[in-house]
């Protein structure tokens, strides 16, 4: 499973990097994105962070202990609070601030360089490596799974925002993302709600959105 997640992450990162080079991103750089209170520039920066920040986190000293990947979401304020919460507003502000310090071309090139480094280091990461993500640690493949989900979700957000078809992600990337989002959705809405949404239109809840 370790190799599957790593390959899926690297594949999704490559798709995101290609999307950042799309002329439509530069053309709509200052326009609002499909996400409230996020410009295309800020969203693009946030997408790129899933590649560039991964290099920095893997280069940092490891954490001592790890939590389960689901706990990363159930204990995280940006998941457990609304889009107008301090945590989520802070994510958008950082994205906008960092985007203001770069250009579309520079961001795409920086992401390409980070991806090249990740292709070099990710395959050799020990399976028991614990990545320090700030408030806690995650085992390296769980950490990459969280970044993979961000790439898949925000890759779609960015494509929709700039009016281009959403690029196709590697099947393993979408499968891992669906699995993770289903687990988070079951925690948020209850497992029965997820089962009904996926199997019974007449009893499906209004939403089972995980995020």
From TrEMBL:
Transmembrane segments: none annotated. GO terms for molecular function: metal ion binding. It holds the Pfam family MDMPI_N. Residues 17-159 form the Mycothiol-dependent maleylpyruvate isomerase metal-binding domain. InterPro entries: DinB/YfiT-like (IPR034660), MDMPI_metal-binding (IPR024344). It comes from the Bacteria. This is Mycothiol-dependent maleylpyruvate isomerase metal-binding domain-containing protein.
């Amino acid at each position: 499973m370790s190799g599957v997640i790593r390959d899926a992450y690297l594949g999704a990162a490559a798709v995101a990097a290609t999307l950042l080079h799309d002329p439509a991103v530069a053309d709509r750089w200052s326009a609002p994105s499909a996400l409230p209170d996020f410009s295309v520039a800020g969203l693009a920066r946030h997408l790129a962070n899933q590649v560039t920040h991964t290099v920095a986190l893997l280069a940092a000293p490891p954490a001592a202990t790890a939590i389960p990947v689901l706990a990363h979401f159930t204990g995280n304020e940006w998941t457990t609070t609304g889009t107008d919460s301090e945590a989520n507003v802070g994510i958008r502000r950082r994205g906008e601030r960092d985007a203001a310090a770069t250009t579309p071309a520079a961001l795409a090139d920086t992401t390409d360089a980070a991806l090249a480094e990740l292709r070099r280091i990710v395959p050799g990461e020990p399976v028991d490596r614990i990545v320090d993500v700030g408030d806690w640690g995650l085992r390296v493949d769980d950490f990459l799974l969280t970044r993979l989900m961000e790439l898949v979700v925000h890759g779609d957000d960015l494509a929709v925002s700039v009016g281009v078809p959403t690029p196709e992600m590697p099947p393993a990337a979408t499968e891992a993302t669906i699995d993770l989002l289903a687990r988070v959705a079951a925690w948020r809405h209850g497992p029965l709600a997820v089962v009904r949404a996926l199997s019974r239109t007449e009893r499906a809840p209004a939403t089972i959105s995980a995020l």
